[in-house]
């Protein structure tokens, strides 16, 4: 086992540290899920950096059990939209429980997903159930969902920093994404991150603005 020194961190006062934490919180707190996208293009390089950022996430045994398929071709976006809407129609027409549909009501979502075609980029995020660093498809991976969840969070944060709108879309079931993206059976699609500029008339529901306060989400011992 060879080691290198821990990388240098910014040498700032606690006051400056607090200011940086507050600034980061305030920037991230302005992220809103977007459900109406403009068709304005976004350079591939932005997506490349966001995926690179996601790829630096911590992961079980550093196996990096993720794969991101970035899609800008209209043909592939259309195929995803068609398959997702077919699943969503069944979901809204009865596959989902009444309790689930009630919980979704304040979001105003339905089976129509035009953004899957309008937005310039769809990033399909896959979790590799097996493979290790070598991606041999056999070696065990660990804490896969946790690792890919963290990577997706870093992907979203980077895209937000780049001034872009995002939506995490989870059609259910989403096995069709594996076929469209040409991924192997041991990879499980986790979510589609829809990326682009918001449509000029995009809105957010007031429900989305309700955030639990610190006192509720944290306790201190
Ligand atoms: N996948 C469906 C339903 C949906 C489920 C949850 I939980 C949400 O937070 C939002 C939507 C859809 O995309 O419409």
TrEMBL record:
The protein's enzyme class: oxidoreductase
InterPro entries listed in its UniProt record: Nitroreductase, Nitroreductase-like, Nitroreductase/BluB
Keyword Glycosyltransferase: no
CDD domains associated with the record: iodotyrosine_dehalogenase
Residue span, Nitroreductase domain: 29-197
EC number: 1.5.1.39
Pfam families from the UniProt entry: Nitroreductase
Statement: the UniProt record of this protein carries the keyword rRNA processing: no
Keyword list, A-Z: Flavoprotein, FMN, Oxidoreductase
A GO term, aspect molecular function: FMN reductase [NAD(P)H] activity
Protein name: FMN reductase (NAD(P)H)
Name of the gene encoding the protein in the UniProt record: nfrA2
